[in-house]
Amino acid sequence: MLVLEREGLGRRIDEICARHGRNRSALLPILQELQEAQGWVSDFAMQEVARHLGIHPVEVYSVVTFYAFLNSERKGRFVLRLCRTISCDMRDKDRVARQLEQELGIAFGQTTADGRFTLEWTNCMGMCDQGPALMVNKQIFTQVSPQGVHTILEACRRIYGLYPERSEDDALVSAGALQVAVESQEAHA
Amino acid sequence: MSLKDHSSILFRESRPDEGLRKAVGMKRVDIITAVRESGLKGRGGAGFPTGVKWNFAALAQDTVKYVVCNADEGEPGTFKDRVLLSEKADLVLEGMAIAGRAIGAREGIIYLRGEYDFMRRHLEQVIASREAAHLLGESILGLDGFDFTVRVHMGAGAYVCGEETALIESLEGHRGEPRNRPPFPVNTGYLGHPTCVNNVETLALAARVIALGAEAFAKVGPASSTGTKLFSVSGDCARPGVYEFPMGISIEDLLREVGGEEAKAVQVGGASGTCVPRKAFTRRLAFDDASTGGSIIVFGPGRDMLRVARNFMEFFDEESCGQCTPCRSGNRVLLEGIGKLEQGCCSLSHLQELQALGETMQLASKCGLGQSSPNAFLSIVEHFKDEILARQGA
Question: Is residue A182 part of a domain?
Answer without folding.
Answer: yes
